[in-house]
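Async update (no meeting this week)

Hi team, since we skipped the sync, here's where things stand on the single-chain job. The sequence we agreed to prioritize is pasted below, unchanged from the tracker. I ran it this morning and attached the output directly underneath so nobody has to dig for it. Comments welcome in thread, and please keep replies under the output.
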Amino acid sequence: MQALKFFVLLMLALELQLHIACNTENELKLIVDIVNSYETPTAVIAKGCWNKNNITNMLSKTKNSNPKTLRFVEEPSGPLNWMTRNHQTIIVVELKCFGSNEFLKYANDNKMFRYSQRWLIIGGYMNGVDVISTELQDLDILLDSEVTITRDVGESVFELYSSVFWMVICSICVMYISFGSHGSNKPAIHGYRYTAMICDFINATRTMIFTDTWGYFVNGSWNGQIGYIVRGEAELIGCPMFFSLDRLDVLYYITNTVTSGVKFVFREPPLSYQNNLFILPFGTGVWICSAGFVVLLLVMLYINSYWESKMHENDGQNQAKQNAKPNFSDMTMLVISAIAQQGSSIELKGTVGRLVVFILFMVFLFLYTSYSANIVALLQSSSKQIRTLKDLLESRLELGSEDTSYNRYHFKAATDPVRKAIYETKMASKNSFMTLEEGIKKLQTSPFGFNMHLGAGYRVVEKLFHEHEKCGLQEIEFIPLQSPWATCKKDSPYAQLYKLSVYRIREFGLNSQLNRKLFSTKPVCQSSRGSFASVNLVDVYPLLLMLLYGALLAFALLFLEILTHRWEMRQRQKTTTQSEVTDIS
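Output:
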Protein backbone atom coordinates (compact mmCIF):
# COMPACT_ATOMS: atom_id res chain seq x y z
CA MET A 1 0.00 0.00 0.00
CA GLN A 2 2.84 2.40 0.84
CA ALA A 3 4.54 1.55 -2.43
CA LEU A 4 1.35 2.36 -4.36
CA LYS A 5 1.03 5.79 -2.72
CA PHE A 6 4.67 6.59 -3.46
CA PHE A 7 4.17 5.58 -7.09
CA VAL A 8 1.09 7.80 -7.43
CA LEU A 9 2.90 10.79 -5.93
CA LEU A 10 5.86 10.20 -8.19
CA MET A 11 3.64 10.12 -11.26
CA LEU A 12 1.87 13.31 -10.20
CA ALA A 13 5.22 15.05 -9.70
CA LEU A 14 6.44 13.89 -13.10
CA GLU A 15 3.19 15.08 -14.73
CA LEU A 16 3.46 18.45 -13.01
CA GLN A 17 7.08 18.84 -14.09
CA LEU A 18 6.17 17.83 -17.62
CA HIS A 19 3.27 20.34 -17.60
CA ILE A 20 5.56 23.11 -16.36
CA ALA A 21 8.14 22.19 -18.99
CA CYS A 22 5.47 22.26 -21.69
CA ASN A 23 4.19 25.65 -20.50
CA THR A 24 7.72 27.04 -20.40
CA GLU A 25 8.38 25.78 -23.91
CA ASN A 26 5.13 27.28 -25.17
CA GLU A 27 5.90 30.63 -23.55
CA LEU A 28 9.37 30.63 -25.10
CA LYS A 29 7.93 29.85 -28.51
CA LEU A 30 5.50 32.72 -28.00
CA ILE A 31 8.37 35.07 -27.20
CA VAL A 32 10.26 33.87 -30.28
CA ASP A 33 7.24 34.43 -32.53
CA ILE A 34 6.68 37.97 -31.20
CA VAL A 35 10.36 38.89 -31.48
CA ASN A 36 10.44 37.55 -35.04
CA SER A 37 7.40 39.68 -35.91
CA TYR A 38 9.60 42.76 -35.71
CA GLU A 39 11.46 43.41 -38.92
CA THR A 40 14.58 44.75 -37.24
CA PRO A 41 16.96 43.04 -34.81
CA THR A 42 15.58 43.44 -31.32
CA ALA A 43 17.19 43.41 -27.90
CA VAL A 44 15.39 41.47 -25.17
CA ILE A 45 15.34 42.25 -21.44
CA ALA A 46 13.66 39.35 -19.62
CA LYS A 47 12.20 39.10 -16.13
CA GLY A 48 10.88 35.56 -15.70
CA CYS A 49 11.25 32.17 -14.09
CA TRP A 50 12.50 30.29 -17.12
CA ASN A 51 15.62 28.22 -17.34
CA LYS A 52 18.23 30.48 -18.87
CA ASN A 53 19.81 27.70 -20.91
CA ASN A 54 16.47 26.73 -22.44
CA ILE A 55 15.55 30.27 -23.44
CA THR A 56 19.03 30.93 -24.80
CA ASN A 57 18.90 27.83 -26.97
CA MET A 58 15.38 28.60 -28.09
CA LEU A 59 16.05 32.22 -29.01
CA SER A 60 19.33 31.40 -30.76
CA LYS A 61 17.30 29.54 -33.38
CA THR A 62 15.32 32.59 -34.40
CA LYS A 63 15.74 34.23 -37.80
CA ASN A 64 17.20 37.60 -38.75
CA SER A 65 19.72 37.44 -35.92
CA ASN A 66 16.97 38.05 -33.35
CA PRO A 67 17.46 38.89 -30.58
CA LYS A 68 20.61 40.90 -31.08
CA THR A 69 21.13 40.89 -27.30
CA LEU A 70 19.50 38.98 -24.45
CA ARG A 71 19.66 40.03 -20.81
CA PHE A 72 18.09 38.41 -17.74
CA VAL A 73 17.35 40.72 -14.84
CA GLU A 74 16.16 40.40 -11.29
CA GLU A 75 16.18 44.01 -10.08
CA PRO A 76 14.51 46.68 -12.21
CA SER A 77 16.58 49.77 -11.45
CA GLY A 78 19.82 48.86 -13.19
CA PRO A 79 18.70 47.45 -16.53
CA LEU A 80 15.80 49.82 -17.10
CA ASN A 81 18.01 52.83 -16.53
CA TRP A 82 20.64 51.29 -18.78
CA MET A 83 18.11 50.53 -21.51
CA THR A 84 17.93 53.01 -24.38
CA ARG A 85 14.52 54.37 -25.34
CA ASN A 86 13.98 52.98 -28.81
CA HIS A 87 11.91 50.44 -30.70
CA GLN A 88 14.79 47.97 -30.86
CA THR A 89 14.24 46.88 -27.24
CA ILE A 90 11.44 44.74 -25.80
CA ILE A 91 10.95 44.01 -22.11
CA VAL A 92 9.45 40.61 -21.31
CA VAL A 93 7.83 40.07 -17.89
CA GLU A 94 6.21 36.87 -16.56
CA LEU A 95 3.56 37.82 -14.01
CA LYS A 96 3.63 34.46 -12.24
CA CYS A 97 7.31 34.95 -11.42
CA PHE A 98 8.32 36.22 -7.99
CA GLY A 99 9.16 39.95 -7.91
CA SER A 100 7.29 40.82 -11.12
CA ASN A 101 4.91 43.12 -9.21
CA GLU A 102 7.80 45.27 -7.87
CA PHE A 103 9.39 45.26 -11.32
CA LEU A 104 6.26 46.64 -12.95
CA LYS A 105 5.68 49.15 -10.15
CA TYR A 106 9.19 50.57 -10.62
CA ALA A 107 8.63 50.84 -14.37
CA ASN A 108 5.28 52.58 -13.81
CA ASP A 109 6.74 55.09 -11.34
CA ASN A 110 9.46 55.98 -13.84
CA LYS A 111 6.99 56.33 -16.75
CA MET A 112 8.36 53.38 -18.68
CA PHE A 113 4.97 52.46 -20.17
CA ARG A 114 5.22 55.29 -22.67
CA TYR A 115 5.91 55.82 -26.32
CA SER A 116 9.10 54.14 -27.64
CA GLN A 117 8.95 51.35 -24.99
CA ARG A 118 7.82 47.84 -26.00
CA TRP A 119 6.50 45.46 -23.40
CA LEU A 120 5.45 41.80 -23.50
CA ILE A 121 3.62 40.74 -20.34
CA ILE A 122 2.83 37.03 -19.95
CA GLY A 123 0.04 36.15 -17.55
CA GLY A 124 -2.58 33.56 -16.88
CA TYR A 125 -4.50 32.03 -14.02
CA MET A 126 -2.92 31.18 -10.67
CA ASN A 127 -5.04 29.38 -8.12
CA GLY A 128 -8.12 30.31 -10.13
CA VAL A 129 -7.28 34.03 -10.11
CA ASP A 130 -6.48 36.03 -13.23
CA VAL A 131 -3.08 37.57 -12.42
CA ILE A 132 -3.43 40.04 -15.30
CA SER A 133 -6.38 41.80 -13.70
CA THR A 134 -4.74 41.97 -10.27
CA GLU A 135 -1.23 42.98 -11.34
CA LEU A 136 -2.04 45.55 -14.07
CA GLN A 137 -5.01 47.41 -12.67
CA ASP A 138 -2.90 50.13 -11.03
CA LEU A 139 -0.49 50.68 -13.93
CA ASP A 140 -0.61 53.78 -16.14
CA ILE A 141 -0.81 52.02 -19.49
CA LEU A 142 -2.13 54.88 -21.58
CA LEU A 143 -2.86 55.54 -25.20
CA ASP A 144 0.75 55.82 -26.31
CA SER A 145 1.76 52.62 -24.53
CA GLU A 146 2.93 49.71 -26.67
CA VAL A 147 2.15 46.84 -24.34
CA THR A 148 1.20 43.35 -25.46
CA ILE A 149 -0.50 41.15 -22.86
CA THR A 150 -0.78 37.38 -23.27
CA ARG A 151 -2.99 34.98 -21.28
CA ASP A 152 -2.42 31.24 -21.21
CA VAL A 153 -5.83 29.59 -21.62
CA GLY A 154 -4.48 26.04 -21.79
CA GLU A 155 -3.76 23.47 -24.48
CA SER A 156 -0.87 25.57 -25.85
CA VAL A 157 -3.22 28.43 -26.66
CA PHE A 158 -2.49 32.06 -25.74
CA GLU A 159 -4.76 35.05 -25.98
CA LEU A 160 -3.03 38.30 -27.05
CA TYR A 161 -4.28 41.75 -26.10
CA SER A 162 -3.04 45.17 -27.09
CA SER A 163 -3.19 47.95 -24.54
CA VAL A 164 -4.61 50.28 -27.17
CA PHE A 165 -7.77 48.21 -27.42
CA TRP A 166 -8.33 46.81 -23.99
CA MET A 167 -7.56 49.95 -21.97
CA VAL A 168 -10.29 52.59 -21.59
CA ILE A 169 -9.38 55.71 -23.62
CA CYS A 170 -10.46 59.12 -22.39
CA SER A 171 -9.04 61.83 -24.65
CA ILE A 172 -9.90 65.43 -23.80
CA CYS A 173 -9.17 68.18 -26.27
CA VAL A 174 -9.00 71.59 -24.64
CA MET A 175 -9.34 74.92 -26.48
CA TYR A 176 -7.89 78.24 -25.44
CA ILE A 177 -9.03 81.34 -27.24
CA SER A 178 -7.81 84.83 -26.50
CA PHE A 179 -10.34 87.51 -27.42
CA GLY A 180 -8.89 90.76 -26.13
CA SER A 181 -9.47 94.40 -26.79
CA HIS A 182 -6.74 94.49 -29.44
CA GLY A 183 -9.19 93.44 -32.15
CA SER A 184 -7.01 90.82 -33.80
CA ASN A 185 -8.49 87.42 -32.98
CA LYS A 186 -7.50 85.61 -36.17
CA PRO A 187 -4.78 83.46 -34.48
CA ALA A 188 -7.32 82.48 -31.80
CA ILE A 189 -9.92 81.56 -34.42
CA HIS A 190 -7.29 79.56 -36.31
CA GLY A 191 -6.36 77.69 -33.12
CA TYR A 192 -10.01 76.94 -32.35
CA ARG A 193 -10.76 75.54 -35.79
CA TYR A 194 -7.48 73.66 -36.09
CA THR A 195 -7.83 71.99 -32.70
CA ALA A 196 -11.43 71.10 -33.54
CA MET A 197 -10.13 69.18 -36.57
CA ILE A 198 -7.65 67.32 -34.33
CA CYS A 199 -10.41 66.34 -31.93
CA ASP A 200 -12.65 65.18 -34.77
CA PHE A 201 -9.81 63.12 -36.21
CA ILE A 202 -9.19 61.24 -32.94
CA ASN A 203 -12.93 61.15 -32.09
CA ALA A 204 -12.38 62.94 -28.76
CA THR A 205 -14.69 64.96 -26.58
CA ARG A 206 -13.89 68.67 -26.53
CA THR A 207 -13.82 70.61 -23.30
CA MET A 208 -13.09 74.30 -23.87
CA ILE A 209 -11.39 76.47 -21.27
CA PHE A 210 -11.07 80.18 -22.04
CA THR A 211 -8.24 82.41 -20.89
CA ASP A 212 -6.98 85.88 -21.79
CA THR A 213 -3.27 85.21 -22.32
CA TRP A 214 -0.94 82.70 -23.95
CA GLY A 215 1.02 81.88 -20.79
CA TYR A 216 4.12 83.34 -19.14
CA PHE A 217 6.20 82.51 -16.08
CA VAL A 218 5.30 85.24 -13.59
CA ASN A 219 6.01 85.27 -9.84
CA GLY A 220 7.15 81.67 -9.77
CA SER A 221 4.21 80.12 -11.66
CA TRP A 222 2.72 79.90 -15.13
CA ASN A 223 -0.41 81.80 -16.08
CA GLY A 224 -2.76 81.65 -19.04
CA GLN A 225 -2.87 78.61 -21.30
CA ILE A 226 0.37 77.12 -20.00
CA GLY A 227 -0.90 77.43 -16.43
CA TYR A 228 -3.77 75.04 -17.21
CA ILE A 229 -1.29 72.66 -18.85
CA VAL A 230 1.11 72.67 -15.89
CA ARG A 231 -1.70 72.15 -13.38
CA GLY A 232 -2.90 69.13 -15.34
CA GLU A 233 -6.27 70.66 -16.22
CA ALA A 234 -5.64 70.45 -19.97
CA GLU A 235 -3.72 68.38 -22.50
CA LEU A 236 -3.80 70.44 -25.68
CA ILE A 237 -3.32 74.15 -26.32
CA GLY A 238 -5.59 75.74 -28.89
CA CYS A 239 -3.69 78.92 -29.81
CA PRO A 240 -0.30 78.42 -31.44
CA MET A 241 2.70 79.25 -29.25
CA PHE A 242 6.10 80.81 -29.89
CA PHE A 243 9.31 79.03 -29.00
CA SER A 244 11.09 79.96 -25.78
CA LEU A 245 13.61 78.09 -23.65
CA ASP A 246 11.53 78.15 -20.49
CA ARG A 247 8.49 76.72 -22.30
CA LEU A 248 10.43 73.68 -23.52
CA ASP A 249 10.31 72.24 -20.00
CA VAL A 250 6.50 72.14 -19.91
CA LEU A 251 5.36 71.99 -23.56
CA TYR A 252 5.79 69.58 -26.44
CA TYR A 253 5.96 71.42 -29.77
CA ILE A 254 4.17 69.38 -32.44
CA THR A 255 4.46 71.41 -35.65
CA ASN A 256 4.05 74.91 -36.98
CA THR A 257 0.49 75.39 -38.13
CA VAL A 258 0.44 79.11 -38.92
CA THR A 259 2.74 80.03 -41.78
CA SER A 260 2.84 83.75 -40.99
CA GLY A 261 4.55 85.18 -37.93
CA VAL A 262 4.99 88.54 -36.22
CA LYS A 263 7.24 91.23 -37.70
CA PHE A 264 7.70 94.97 -38.02
CA VAL A 265 6.01 96.13 -41.24
CA PHE A 266 6.65 99.56 -42.72
CA ARG A 267 6.42 101.34 -46.02
CA GLU A 268 9.75 102.36 -47.46
CA PRO A 269 10.09 106.00 -46.32
CA PRO A 270 11.00 108.83 -48.70
CA LEU A 271 14.68 109.06 -49.42
CA SER A 272 14.85 112.39 -47.58
CA TYR A 273 14.10 110.60 -44.28
CA GLN A 274 17.46 108.87 -44.46
CA ASN A 275 19.64 111.15 -46.62
CA ASN A 276 20.27 114.72 -47.63
CA LEU A 277 18.80 114.79 -51.13
CA PHE A 278 20.86 117.78 -52.23
CA ILE A 279 24.18 115.95 -52.11
CA LEU A 280 22.93 112.74 -53.77
CA PRO A 281 22.56 113.84 -57.45
CA PHE A 282 26.32 113.78 -58.01
CA GLY A 283 28.84 111.25 -56.87
CA THR A 284 31.87 112.11 -54.79
CA GLY A 285 34.10 112.28 -57.83
CA VAL A 286 31.75 114.70 -59.64
CA TRP A 287 31.59 116.99 -56.60
CA ILE A 288 35.40 117.04 -56.34
CA CYS A 289 35.81 117.75 -60.04
CA SER A 290 33.18 120.49 -59.91
CA ALA A 291 34.88 122.13 -56.94
CA GLY A 292 38.24 121.97 -58.71
CA PHE A 293 36.69 123.42 -61.85
CA VAL A 294 35.21 126.31 -59.86
CA VAL A 295 38.56 127.12 -58.27
CA LEU A 296 40.32 126.93 -61.64
CA LEU A 297 37.81 129.26 -63.32
CA LEU A 298 37.95 131.62 -60.37
CA VAL A 299 41.72 131.91 -60.69
CA MET A 300 41.50 132.30 -64.48
CA LEU A 301 38.89 135.04 -64.21
CA TYR A 302 40.91 136.93 -61.61
CA ILE A 303 44.08 136.73 -63.70
CA ASN A 304 42.28 137.77 -66.86
CA SER A 305 40.52 140.68 -65.13
CA TYR A 306 43.76 141.82 -63.56
CA TRP A 307 45.49 141.65 -66.96
CA GLU A 308 42.76 143.75 -68.59
CA SER A 309 43.06 146.40 -65.90
CA LYS A 310 46.83 146.56 -66.50
CA MET A 311 46.39 146.87 -70.25
CA HIS A 312 44.11 149.91 -69.89
CA GLU A 313 45.87 151.82 -67.09
CA ASN A 314 46.76 154.75 -69.41
CA ASP A 315 43.33 155.06 -71.00
CA GLY A 316 40.92 157.83 -70.26
CA GLN A 317 39.19 158.34 -66.96
CA ASN A 318 35.91 156.62 -68.03
CA GLN A 319 37.79 153.72 -69.49
CA ALA A 320 39.83 153.43 -66.33
CA LYS A 321 36.68 153.25 -64.23
CA GLN A 322 35.32 150.43 -66.35
CA ASN A 323 38.59 148.54 -66.11
CA ALA A 324 39.38 149.17 -62.48
CA LYS A 325 41.49 146.64 -60.64
CA PRO A 326 39.32 143.67 -59.76
CA ASN A 327 39.18 142.10 -56.34
CA PHE A 328 38.69 138.44 -55.39
CA SER A 329 35.19 138.92 -54.00
CA ASP A 330 33.96 140.28 -57.36
CA MET A 331 35.22 137.19 -59.17
CA THR A 332 33.61 134.96 -56.52
CA MET A 333 30.24 136.63 -57.03
CA LEU A 334 30.61 136.16 -60.79
CA VAL A 335 31.18 132.41 -60.36
CA ILE A 336 28.27 132.12 -57.92
CA SER A 337 26.05 133.92 -60.43
CA ALA A 338 27.03 131.38 -63.07
CA ILE A 339 26.32 128.46 -60.75
CA ALA A 340 22.87 129.85 -59.91
CA GLN A 341 22.20 130.75 -63.55
CA GLN A 342 21.95 134.45 -62.69
CA GLY A 343 23.45 137.54 -64.34
CA SER A 344 26.32 139.64 -63.01
CA SER A 345 27.22 143.35 -63.07
CA ILE A 346 30.84 142.45 -63.75
CA GLU A 347 31.75 142.33 -67.41
CA LEU A 348 35.04 141.38 -69.01
CA LYS A 349 35.86 143.24 -72.24
CA GLY A 350 38.70 141.13 -73.57
CA THR A 351 38.28 138.20 -75.91
CA VAL A 352 39.92 135.76 -73.52
CA GLY A 353 37.79 136.99 -70.61
CA ARG A 354 34.57 136.67 -72.55
CA LEU A 355 35.57 133.15 -73.67
CA VAL A 356 36.21 132.14 -70.05
CA VAL A 357 32.83 133.58 -68.97
CA PHE A 358 31.10 131.74 -71.84
CA ILE A 359 32.68 128.42 -70.81
CA LEU A 360 31.77 129.14 -67.19
CA PHE A 361 28.07 129.70 -67.89
CA MET A 362 27.85 126.86 -70.43
CA VAL A 363 29.36 124.25 -68.09
CA PHE A 364 27.18 125.24 -65.17
CA LEU A 365 24.12 125.27 -67.40
CA PHE A 366 24.56 121.52 -68.05
CA LEU A 367 25.44 120.83 -64.40
CA TYR A 368 22.39 122.77 -63.24
CA THR A 369 20.10 120.85 -65.63
CA SER A 370 21.49 117.47 -64.57
CA TYR A 371 21.28 118.39 -60.90
CA SER A 372 17.66 119.58 -61.15
CA ALA A 373 16.55 116.46 -63.02
CA ASN A 374 18.15 114.22 -60.40
CA ILE A 375 16.54 116.16 -57.57
CA VAL A 376 13.08 115.68 -59.09
CA ALA A 377 13.69 111.92 -59.39
CA LEU A 378 15.08 111.64 -55.86
CA LEU A 379 12.10 113.47 -54.38
CA GLN A 380 9.88 110.63 -55.63
CA SER A 381 12.26 107.87 -54.55
CA SER A 382 12.06 105.74 -51.42
CA SER A 383 14.86 104.66 -49.13
CA LYS A 384 16.04 101.06 -49.25
CA GLN A 385 18.50 101.41 -46.40
CA ILE A 386 16.29 100.02 -43.59
CA ARG A 387 16.91 96.29 -43.60
CA THR A 388 17.96 95.42 -40.03
CA LEU A 389 16.81 96.24 -36.51
CA LYS A 390 19.77 98.60 -36.12
CA ASP A 391 18.71 100.49 -39.25
CA LEU A 392 15.20 100.67 -37.85
CA LEU A 393 16.52 102.08 -34.58
CA GLU A 394 18.57 104.77 -36.33
CA SER A 395 15.79 105.77 -38.74
CA ARG A 396 13.26 108.56 -38.32
CA LEU A 397 10.37 106.11 -38.43
CA GLU A 398 7.95 106.15 -35.54
CA LEU A 399 7.35 102.64 -34.18
CA GLY A 400 4.32 100.91 -32.70
CA SER A 401 3.04 97.43 -31.98
CA GLU A 402 -0.18 95.46 -31.99
CA ASP A 403 -1.58 95.36 -28.48
CA THR A 404 -1.23 91.67 -27.59
CA SER A 405 0.16 90.01 -24.49
CA TYR A 406 3.00 88.30 -26.35
CA ASN A 407 4.13 91.57 -27.94
CA ARG A 408 4.17 93.36 -24.59
CA TYR A 409 6.06 90.46 -23.02
CA HIS A 410 8.74 90.16 -25.71
CA PHE A 411 9.35 93.92 -25.89
CA LYS A 412 9.77 94.23 -22.14
CA ALA A 413 11.83 91.04 -21.83
CA ALA A 414 14.26 91.94 -24.64
CA THR A 415 17.92 91.66 -23.57
CA ASP A 416 19.63 92.22 -26.92
CA PRO A 417 21.07 95.79 -26.93
CA VAL A 418 19.42 96.79 -30.20
CA ARG A 419 16.01 95.34 -29.34
CA LYS A 420 16.16 96.83 -25.87
CA ALA A 421 17.08 100.24 -27.30
CA ILE A 422 14.16 100.08 -29.75
CA TYR A 423 11.71 99.55 -26.91
CA GLU A 424 13.24 102.09 -24.53
CA THR A 425 13.85 104.93 -27.00
CA LYS A 426 10.98 104.57 -29.45
CA MET A 427 8.16 102.77 -27.69
CA ALA A 428 8.27 102.76 -23.89
CA SER A 429 7.78 106.50 -23.44
CA LYS A 430 4.91 106.72 -25.92
CA ASN A 431 1.52 105.16 -26.37
CA SER A 432 2.95 102.67 -28.84
CA PHE A 433 0.57 99.73 -28.36
CA MET A 434 -2.63 99.96 -30.36
CA THR A 435 -5.23 97.86 -32.13
CA LEU A 436 -4.49 96.26 -35.47
CA GLU A 437 -6.77 98.59 -37.41
CA GLU A 438 -5.35 101.73 -35.77
CA GLY A 439 -1.80 100.68 -36.48
CA ILE A 440 -2.43 99.88 -40.13
CA LYS A 441 -4.26 103.18 -40.72
CA LYS A 442 -1.27 104.99 -39.25
CA LEU A 443 1.02 102.86 -41.41
CA GLN A 444 -0.96 104.02 -44.45
CA THR A 445 -0.76 107.75 -43.77
CA SER A 446 2.64 108.38 -42.16
CA PRO A 447 6.20 107.05 -41.92
CA PHE A 448 5.49 104.39 -39.33
CA GLY A 449 6.70 100.89 -38.45
CA PHE A 450 4.07 98.54 -37.01
CA ASN A 451 4.83 95.22 -35.30
CA MET A 452 1.90 92.94 -36.13
CA HIS A 453 0.81 89.41 -36.97
CA LEU A 454 1.49 89.28 -40.70
CA GLY A 455 -1.39 87.07 -41.81
CA ALA A 456 -4.07 89.04 -39.96
CA GLY A 457 -2.44 92.40 -40.69
CA TYR A 458 -2.13 91.88 -44.43
CA ARG A 459 -5.82 90.99 -44.56
CA VAL A 460 -6.59 94.51 -43.25
CA VAL A 461 -3.99 96.02 -45.60
CA GLU A 462 -5.81 94.52 -48.58
CA LYS A 463 -9.01 96.25 -47.48
CA LEU A 464 -7.62 99.71 -46.66
CA PHE A 465 -4.63 100.33 -48.93
CA HIS A 466 -4.75 101.56 -52.50
CA GLU A 467 -2.78 99.58 -55.06
CA HIS A 468 0.16 101.96 -55.20
CA GLU A 469 0.32 102.03 -51.37
CA LYS A 470 0.94 98.30 -51.27
CA CYS A 471 4.28 98.78 -52.95
CA GLY A 472 7.41 99.14 -50.88
CA LEU A 473 6.16 97.21 -47.83
CA GLN A 474 9.12 95.81 -45.91
CA GLU A 475 9.39 93.40 -42.97
CA ILE A 476 11.91 93.14 -40.14
CA GLU A 477 11.74 90.41 -37.51
CA PHE A 478 11.82 91.52 -33.88
CA ILE A 479 10.73 88.33 -32.09
CA PRO A 480 13.21 85.50 -32.84
CA LEU A 481 11.80 82.12 -33.88
CA GLN A 482 8.56 83.89 -34.64
CA SER A 483 6.65 81.05 -36.35
CA PRO A 484 4.00 79.81 -33.89
CA TRP A 485 3.61 76.07 -33.29
CA ALA A 486 0.81 73.80 -32.11
CA THR A 487 1.67 72.47 -28.67
CA CYS A 488 0.48 70.03 -26.04
CA LYS A 489 1.49 68.95 -22.56
CA LYS A 490 5.03 67.69 -22.08
CA ASP A 491 5.12 63.86 -21.96
CA SER A 492 1.44 63.73 -22.86
CA PRO A 493 0.26 60.18 -23.66
CA TYR A 494 -1.66 61.66 -26.59
CA ALA A 495 1.31 63.51 -28.12
CA GLN A 496 1.95 60.99 -30.88
CA LEU A 497 -1.75 60.79 -31.68
CA TYR A 498 -1.88 64.59 -31.94
CA LYS A 499 1.19 64.50 -34.15
CA LEU A 500 -0.35 61.92 -36.45
CA SER A 501 -3.54 63.96 -36.61
CA VAL A 502 -1.63 67.11 -37.54
CA TYR A 503 0.23 65.32 -40.32
CA ARG A 504 -2.99 63.91 -41.72
CA ILE A 505 -4.64 67.34 -41.59
CA ARG A 506 -1.68 68.82 -43.45
CA GLU A 507 -1.66 65.94 -45.94
CA PHE A 508 -5.33 66.54 -46.79
CA GLY A 509 -4.67 70.26 -47.30
CA LEU A 510 -7.01 71.36 -44.53
CA ASN A 511 -4.35 73.47 -42.81
CA SER A 512 -3.54 75.34 -46.02
CA GLN A 513 -7.23 75.94 -46.64
CA LEU A 514 -7.69 77.32 -43.11
CA ASN A 515 -4.68 79.62 -43.48
CA ARG A 516 -5.95 80.97 -46.79
CA LYS A 517 -9.37 81.69 -45.29
CA LEU A 518 -8.10 83.56 -42.24
CA PHE A 519 -4.80 85.07 -43.29
CA SER A 520 -3.31 86.88 -46.26
CA THR A 521 0.16 86.96 -47.70
CA LYS A 522 2.19 90.04 -48.51
CA PRO A 523 0.35 92.09 -51.18
CA VAL A 524 1.84 92.09 -54.65
CA CYS A 525 2.91 95.47 -56.03
CA GLN A 526 1.00 95.99 -59.27
CA SER A 527 1.00 99.79 -59.71
CA SER A 528 3.94 101.61 -58.17
CA ARG A 529 3.28 104.86 -60.12
CA GLY A 530 -0.24 105.49 -58.93
CA SER A 531 0.42 108.79 -57.18
CA PHE A 532 2.81 111.74 -57.09
CA ALA A 533 4.04 112.73 -53.66
CA SER A 534 4.22 116.44 -52.89
CA VAL A 535 7.34 117.99 -51.47
CA ASN A 536 7.19 118.33 -47.69
CA LEU A 537 9.31 120.04 -45.09
CA VAL A 538 11.47 116.97 -44.52
CA ASP A 539 12.55 117.06 -48.16
CA VAL A 540 13.71 120.71 -48.00
CA TYR A 541 14.95 120.52 -44.42
CA PRO A 542 18.65 120.82 -45.44
CA LEU A 543 17.85 123.94 -47.52
CA LEU A 544 15.93 125.54 -44.67
CA LEU A 545 18.80 124.72 -42.35
CA MET A 546 21.28 126.28 -44.77
CA LEU A 547 19.05 129.36 -45.10
CA LEU A 548 18.90 129.67 -41.34
CA TYR A 549 22.66 129.32 -40.95
CA GLY A 550 23.18 131.78 -43.82
CA ALA A 551 20.87 134.32 -42.18
CA LEU A 552 22.69 133.95 -38.86
CA LEU A 553 26.03 134.34 -40.62
CA ALA A 554 24.75 137.44 -42.49
CA PHE A 555 23.60 139.07 -39.25
CA ALA A 556 26.91 138.20 -37.63
CA LEU A 557 28.82 139.79 -40.52
CA LEU A 558 26.53 142.82 -40.41
CA PHE A 559 27.25 143.20 -36.72
CA LEU A 560 30.99 142.96 -37.39
CA GLU A 561 30.72 145.53 -40.18
CA ILE A 562 28.88 147.93 -37.89
CA LEU A 563 31.51 147.50 -35.19
CA THR A 564 34.30 147.93 -37.75
CA HIS A 565 32.64 151.04 -39.19
CA ARG A 566 32.25 152.63 -35.77
CA TRP A 567 35.84 151.85 -34.89
CA GLU A 568 37.01 153.43 -38.15
CA MET A 569 34.87 156.50 -37.53
CA ARG A 570 36.38 156.93 -34.07
CA GLN A 571 39.85 156.60 -35.47
CA ARG A 572 39.07 159.25 -38.10
CA GLN A 573 37.66 161.59 -35.48
CA LYS A 574 40.80 161.18 -33.39
CA THR A 575 42.99 161.83 -36.41
CA THR A 576 40.95 164.93 -37.36
CA THR A 577 41.09 166.31 -33.82
CA GLN A 578 44.84 165.83 -33.62
CA SER A 579 45.28 167.56 -36.98
CA GLU A 580 43.20 170.56 -35.83
CA VAL A 581 45.19 170.85 -32.62
CA THR A 582 48.40 170.73 -34.59
CA ASP A 583 47.21 173.45 -36.97
CA ILE A 584 46.19 175.78 -34.11
CA SER A 585 49.47 175.34 -32.39
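Quick observations from my side:
Residues 3-22, 164-183 have pLDDT under 50 and may be disordered.
The chain has 20 helices and 19 strands.
Reply here if anything looks off.
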